[in-house]
Amino acid sequence: MKKTHNTLLPEQTVTALAHFAWCALIALRTAQQDGQVLSPLSTHAFLLRWLAVAYKQKRFPRAIASDIESLVVLGRQKGPAASLFSRLEYLWSSCNGPVSAQSDLYRLTYAIELLKSQGWVNAAVSDRDWDNEALLVEEYREMDALLVRKSALTGGFSEEGKLVAPVEFLVTGNLSACTEIFQAHALPAVMMALNRIALQPEQ
């Protein structure tokens, strides 16, 4: 598993994401005005190419490289059904409003970015690794870490970012600091065990 530390503060990460989305949308608008993009298919092709080049050339901060890569992968896997334009528009609008008014997934992302800015490690692990708790605890025992099963994270939120299924986290280190930040971002975490917390969707 790859351990990475974010070098940007949460506010800086949000600003970087907003700037990235704005650049992509402006590039698309310019191409449309020039007559290069005239259909949903050409819109998808243009955005996918733009995203791939931006990722390859490292045009934006490393802290948001994984976000760009995810869009590239999604665009290649799903084609026009990936709705890259809508996703970029949503990213732009969500990054330009107060955190309290944003979706569950956005607030979780913001809380995680805040933890990472304080030295925490965050990792999404495979089902196989998740089932081997002893190994995970040993690997991250000397640090503050927030671990989540990738499949649970992917399936726990709707396309609009609403929490629709429980998402459980394994915490090593300062559990109280983690839960305080979650609560500060309107993410009520339920204790599942001494080192596990979970977000539960509203009934």
TrEMBL record:
Name of the protein described by the UniProt record: DUF2913 family protein
Organism whose genome encodes this protein: Hafnia alvei
Matching InterPro entries: DUF2913
